[in-house]
Write the structure tokens for this entry.
Amino acid sequence: MRDSVRVSVESDGEEESVRLHDDTGKVSAGGATFRFSIDGAEPADAGSDDDGAIDPGAYDETTGFDGETEPCYIAPVAEVPSDTTLRCEAVNGRRGTEVILRRENDDEVFAWRNSCPHKPKVRLDPGGGAIVDGEQLVCHEHGARFECGDGFCTYGPCRGDALDEIDVEVRDGDVYLSDERFDACNRLR
């Protein structure tokens, strides 16, 4: 499958929302598992472990994963905004997770999963940038406010929760995804 599709599963008060880049697979949350096969594609057993996760070594160059553990280039620091956010997609095998990045102090960059802890289906940056008020990200739907450094929620229905931080690093004026949960990263337009 060329284009990704967003799949959400909710069960027992847990929710998982991911982007998928494959014709077959599964997504789990709480006690529920959603298995899918698009256009009659056969489930791929080769290269997967017992829970259906794909072995990174099974990918070729078309997946963008080269088997290295080196950080993945995202963008020049100068292209990461300080007054809003930049969206990208971190990829783990054939699953993608939307990520938002924000720059502080000219060369410090923070990244989080593009999802409000109150309702994970709600993206903080639905496209065009998240709302930033002072040093806080603001959920456009619930009004929740998150500290830009640690992602801690100071106000709103998820007060006390925090955004899921994604590890990035800045090297020589460029931002790299260094979070070991992901194999690759692509900017979203």
About this structure: The longest strand covers residues 95-104.
